[in-house]
Amino acid sequence: MAATIVFDLDGTLVDTAPDLLAALDALFAREGLPRVRSAELRNMIGGGARALIERALGEQRVTVTRGDVDRLYESYIAHYADHIAEASRLFPGLEQALDALAENGCRFAVCTNKLEFLAVRLLEELSIAGLFAAICGQDTFGLQKPDPEVLRRTVARAGGEMQGAVMVGDSATDIDMARSAAIPVVAVDFGYTETPVSQLGPDRIISRFDDLPAAVRELLACRP
User: Fold this and answer.
1) pTM across the whole model
2) Which side of the chain, N or C, has fewer Cβ within a 10 Å radius?
3) Residue partners of 48: CB distance under 8 A and separation at least 6
4) How many Cα neighbours within 13 Å face the side chain of 122?
5) Positions marked catalytic
6) Three-state DSSP state, 132
């Protein structure tokens, strides 16, 4: 079952919503704006911090320039970097699933639209960064998901081959990228997505990480 398993980060490996939304609250407080309480914002996290800020401003009907968004984004990233793992937690069962996959020779990589330094810092704070052969963000290659080239380069950086790769994610971005790269994809149904993964056609859906090793084994067995 040796393979390269590529994971999305936010909403897949780690429940980062508490710290991401807390950073948004802090940003709006500094700007004198009301706190945004829309439950929909949680599912916007996978689109990146800039999209999250823009959606929140839209909820408040605040009109801003591109320069304003750039300034707000930089302020948001600075605050988030300093508070990146205060409430974020690994999803239950993740470490045990990684152990089981590693015993079968699998290597791991992260492919995220988070900035690389933030992804590395978060995983270091949660003590699992060393489990990944590559941690790649939106600035690693100058490309962002769902561009399939991001996935190809992530697999290559991890020392793997595309014919033995599997993607694990939580949203249309991850599923579309895997499809474009012609590799199988497992979707978790507990992450951040505006459209339920059951409507997006992944190869497998799991509700707990306990089921990931079996899903990977089945998908690899089906490959030519």
Assistant:
1) 0.94
2) C
3) 113, 114, 138, 144
4) 29
5) 8
6) coil
